[in-house]
Specification:
Tetracycline Repressor, domain 2, 2 domains, single chain, 82% helix, mainly alpha, 292 residues, Four Helix Bundle (Hemerythrin (Met), subunit A)
Amino acid sequence: MSIMISQKLIDYIKLSKPRVIGLLDLAAVTGFVLGLPKNVNLTTLIISLLVMLIGGSLAASGGMIINGGLEIERDKKMKRTSNRPTVKGEVSRKEAYIVGAILVILGVLLGFLANPLTAFFIALGAFIYIAIYSIWLKPRTWLNIIIGGFAGSTAVWAGFSASSGSFSLLSFLLGFLIFMWTPGHFWSLALRFREDYKNAEIPMLPVLTDEKTAAKAIAISNTLMVPFALLVGLYIGDVIYMIVTSFISALLLYISVKLYLNPTKDEAWKSFKFSSPYLAIILVTLIITKLF
């Protein structure tokens, strides 16, 4: 019995995409740090941080698990996703919906322990990811990942509101940076697994156009994103952040140009693999510069 429960837990963890959750948590912590007030009650802040992080992680995990239930038929047609627990029948569609919904509800309720605004952003992130992206946009239009990118933005906004109780221009800018980062990241993945997405009839941009045009769109998207990364630095007025961000942004653009000149699966994979560390470095730099 305990072995079955342990295996089921492992299945749900796989469906929740821990690496994605980790990056969302880092974004939430960054928002939390940027929103720290000058006069703080340490105990209150620690409680707010914990309930925001746990609540946000539960809600995001729930959204991913529900997505797994929604995507069973399409996942069967993709080599990259054909071994997911939902596809193999280890987690049924009904189980995915029930467990996912419970996690989302628990996550939102925990958000209320920080403040209502935090709970709202946690709920908004789950709603955008499940209803707007997974159900409505993903099977219908190449704009899916663009509009769906706001689901990632809400992690920053939940973190910022948990420490400050507010929403500001700075939190908007950082959230919008994540929104701008999202298309280049996921289009690179879609270009690498173009045949998979085509077989599953998912209208990602690289499926609807040729490789050269898709690579051009990735390069343009990344280029448009970089000014927002620098704008955050100008807003907070930190030289170290500007230096670090300028350097890694130059690397990102170099990789984007290489992909445009040689739009192969290998170059698309390099672009995808670099984009997550790129965002992580920006977020960690913001945390360090704010705290120290």
